Amino acid sequence: MRTLRPPRALVALCLFSLFCSAAFSQTVELPSVVVEGVLPMSDLAPSAGTTSIDSATIEATAAPDLPALLSSVSGVIISPTGTNGAQTTISLRGSTSNQVLVLVDGVRVTDPATGQTDLSRLDIPLDQIERIEIQRGALSAQYGADAVGGVIHIHTKKKTATPSVEVSVQNSAFLPSSVTVGSGLSATTVPFVGSALVDGQTLNISARMNNLSAWAKAERAANAYPYYDTNGERRQRTNAGLLAAAGGLQGSFLLPVGELSTTARVNYRSLGVPGTEDSPTPEAHQDDWNANLSAHYGTDALFAGALALDVNSYAQAGGIGYRESDTSGTDTHYSYRAGADTTFSWLAPWQGELKGGASFRYDRLDSSVVKTSSGSSPQRFTGGTFIEPHFEIGRWTAIPALRYDATSDFLSGISASLGILYDMAKDTVFRSSVSSAYRAPSFDDLYWPASGGAEGNPDLQPETAYSGDFSIAHRDDQRSWSLGAFVRYVQDVILWQTDSTGTWKPSNYGDALYPGIEAEASSSIGSWQISGNYTFLYSFVLSGNLTLADDKRVPYVPVHSASLSASRSVNNFKSAFMLTYKSLRYTTTGNVAYLPSNLLTDIRLQWKLSPMADLEILFQNCFDEQYQIVQGYPMPGFSVSAKFTMHFQGQKKPVQ
Fold this sequence. Notes:
By secondary structure, this protein is mostly beta strands. The chain has one domain: Maltoporin, Chain A (Beta Barrel), CATH 2.40.170.20. It contains 5 helices and 36 strands. The strands form 6 sheets. The chain has a 22-stranded antiparallel beta barrel. It has a 5-stranded mixed beta sheet with strand order 1-6-7-4-5. A two-stranded antiparallel sheet has the order 2-3. β19 and β20 form a beta hairpin. The termini are far apart.
């Protein structure tokens, strides 16, 4: 694959941006928090691999969106299939995307049909996120099904002390260049693609007033970025256009005892589905939408403050319509989910506390394609209860947890974990845990119809996993760091592959072992905030006749991952830089074919033009790396976006 050299002006710009803040006044404003940190002991789950990202970190980062932000976290692997709107899945410590549980304000957003969370459909602007907690490890004892690789919990903003309105407009562009159109004797060269300068536009509006907040987003993108095909020809991505709109409304209200908060979110998208380089789908199109409504009640004032209670109820609906061509029919899939989760925390008579809870969930899929063997719509009832006492003995804290889950279409099961914390010194803690987890097959896994060379498998059993980890973590006002090791063993992994008849079909085929090391650190160095992380993940495929002695890596799981971020705020100028590295990834269990490593550089420069106006310039993939994360899906090269934001603020009022 041919690599494009970056223009000299671009290289000069990237180097210049590292030093341009020196031209401003030397009066320095330090960020108030570290870029990344470990959670305090009181907030720790039994997993020893936990990272928290707060709103100040999000504001300072060079990451343009949620997937890019998460990709800079230790142990996280993001797998996009293009740019805006393309399917983007997530992995923790080498897990499949189905094995990661994603929560938004306590509500799971996993698609019941596929069992995955497509981050491209989770269209929440970064400036609406209060914090993100990434917990790596088997966590079914706390969260039930799907938390095999870990849990990502996104908390959105709810309250504000200052009424405000914010409006921003953004234009995204690629460098105009010549591209080849057509093939063979009909191939022609288009010398200048001017539309690349206005490839995408985004409008964001948000408003906050005391206990109410609302946001809306509209986006258009052609996604017609240039790339090199397998023959070294420079081409332009086609049928990748996107039109999207999303919005949310939140409110929180004080009650005589406790607080009630409600959240509503909705989004709609219409997008082309270009397919892979080898199997393009120039006419494929998809329309999808999601609607979510939740209500949360919380109080820590029961029984004179000895008992805290949280109740979260929710209802969700979503739809996907997909057609392969303009003349083919449209497959439709409508998914529904409703449920409630209740948790409590009691200050027990012993030194420590007692946590526990119960949950209930109903999932249903109404699809023109996916039906049960009786021709009905797949549905699932799930109920669970867990108990998690905390025992404090001197500097030691033991956190055992036990959960029982009952599922309508599978046998009931028990998940367990044990976490150990040791307060080594001031601001330094040792953490270790052992745990188990499981994942139930998705509706697509079970009931995909026997057509088009694919077929579901109603005889599938749940996946199971066991994990252990330990770490040492430190955090103070100036720096934080953590260093740890982990091992995961997964049984009965559900894999789609061809059977003896050539039919693409899932089975409980795969076992895998994932040992690894994780390191994170952040610090204030002068006027800079610097953070970095490194992950070593040496996976072993144990499927079929393969053993540890065969020494085969799991496909799409890099052995080495690293990230480095830096940010600085000087008077009216802010700069942020982020580098992310992923080593090569094999695409098959034979470990012959692979995708090469990649190093991406993003830079964000922001000027405060006035008390009411900001200008932001974002450079992505500054050195125009030509790469793929998933085989057959070329990723965008160098791009630049400019965003202009207006702020309108009222007088500060006390938050109730």
